[in-house]
Amino acid sequence: MTPTFARQPLPEERRTLEEWIKNPPSRDHYIRARIVLLSAEGLSAPDIARRIGRHESRVRMWIRQFNRFGIEGLYSGKPLSGRAEPISKSLGDERHESSRRSSDSPQRKSSGT
After folding, report:
1. pTM for the structure as a whole
2. Burial class (CB in 10 A: 0-12, 13-18, 19+), 12
């Protein structure tokens, strides 16, 4: 797998990231700022993941978000792709099967006593 590193933040971006470290709007913002700044210093995603206690895939995701969208990419809890994720065929099949099972279930008969 190709190593993923954050690009060097622009001066304004660096100020924002450092502000998020000092006075974080939320814990998520603090973590995301640390990820980007540590990566920009040359730490690898696995090293950052160990240091901050997050999964390596999440670290890589936030680095990619920053590289692609800048600070804006760090605000959302979901990746900004510009396109909605499609519902998988298997999920659609599971929903269909679930609704079919509920309509096939026998009705309870009251005893009338």
Report:
1. 0.67
2. exposed
